[in-house]
Design brief:
By secondary structure, the protein is of the alpha+beta class. Helices cover 56% and strands 10% of the residues. The protein has a domain at 32-144. It has 13 helices and 10 strands.
Length: 358
């Protein structure tokens, strides 16, 4: 049973987390953007850059600035990541995802990519960053927004909701933002209603990557609008996901070698930082809304996955480099420390820092 004594222990643990280090984030970043992959902890220039990673890196810097204030270095990094996003946006508002190291844009459009751009730019608008940065973030956001209403992917919709949530905080006088947010949140409820059944409480007939981000987005839609349906769906799907991703009291993200399709067995490996990181953020959001101690426990277990409390009993976060291994494998860890891994770790670590400060 999860009681107040354990809750107190977890809240005390928040004060003993690894220090926040942006060392590896900076190591992967050049004057174009954050490089996608690493060979061990060394940037792998062959992999080029993605809007996905640069959007998440921008979110990391915004989170950092909201906690510690804006300094010259954080503003420099924010400019690099936003400049890359702006360069990759087309005139019609769509966004190409991949650029080679020699700065050739490689055509490749995805809904999730546009959603992440909306999230990153909306979050930038709701931040202490400079007005010139916000002006560009708003321009990119406004051009990308129409594409959110064409999305079918629940993740792309969820990322867009997160962007609109922060946009609404930055521009509370704009009633159209809330209408847009409600339209997209209702679409997630449609996915939920269409795909849920006894024993399968989810938005799709499968679980793949970044799953907790969907209930997380609905929790933010509830905060913005107050519609209890959003919170109810967020709570039910989060509990289902927590159940599926817990093995013998240990947090175990869905593996990417087969994922988990309804009616089949879930994949155990490779477990990815993106899933653990978003589980931390979703649990923290639901804890802030409800005060439920079970969310503290899930948050604690998910973050400790990075520190070695996983089914391999192996740390995924590298405290020496400030980087994060790309995944947990049957043999141990993936020795490479790429962009997605470190930004997802930092997003969750900064989320816990904000909880500690509150």
């Amino acid at each position: 049973m999860f009681g107040w004594k354990k809750a107190g222990k977890i809240l005390g643990w928040l004060g003993r987390m690894p220090p926040i280090k942006l060392t590896h984030l900076k190591n992967l970043t050049d004057d174009t953007g954050i490089i996608q992959h690493a060979k061990y902890a060394v940037p792998d220039r062959r992999s080029g850059y993605t809007v996905d990673d640069n959007s998440r890196a921008l979110i990391v810097i915004v989170k950092y600035c909201r906690l510690f204030g804006v300094d010259e270095e954080s503003l420099r990094l924010a400019n690099i990541y936003l400049s890359f996003i702006y360069h990759m946006q087309q005139e019609d508002g769509r966004v190409y995802n991949l650029m080679s190291y020699d700065r050739r844009v490689i055509n490749g459009y995805s809904e999730d990519c546009v959603g992440r751009v909306l999230w990153a730019c909306g979050y930038t608008l709701d931040s202490p960053l400079s007005e010139d940065v916000k002006l560009l973030a708003k321009e990119v956001f406004d051009k990308a927004l129409p594409h959110a209403f064409k999305m079918r992917s629940p993740r792309g919709i969820a990322y867009s909701i997160l962007g609109l949530y922060h946009y609404a905080r930055a521009f509370p006088e704009d009633p159209n933002v809330i209408r847009c947010l409600k339209t997209l949140a209702d679409r997630l409820l449609e996915h939920y209603s269409r795909n849920s059944s006894p024993g399968w409480v989810w938005f799709e007939p499968y679980l793949t990557y970044d799953n907790p981000r969907i209930p997380y987005a609905l929790s933010k839609a509830y905060e913005a609008i107050g519609d209890a349906r959003y919170l109810e769906a967020a709570v039910k799907t989060f509990k289902f996901l927590t159940y599926v991703e817990t093995i013998d009291e240990v947090y175990a993200p869905i593996g990417n070698n087969g994922w988990y399709f309804k009616g089949r067995y879930r994949a155990l490996y490779d477990q990815q930082p993106i899933e653990a990181g978003s589980m931390v953020e979703a649990a923290a959001s639901l804890y802030k809304i409800s005060g439920g101690r079970e969310y503290l426990e899930t948050m604690w277990k998910a973050f400790n996955w990075f520190l070695g409390e996983n089914i391999n009993r192996t740390p995924v976060y590298d405290q020496d480099t400030g980087g994060c291994h790309d995944g947990l494998t049957p043999e141990g860890v993936n020795l490479n420390q790429g962009a997605e891994a470190v930004v997802c770790y930092l997003m969750s670590r900064l989320e816990l820092e904000s909880l500690k400060k509150k």
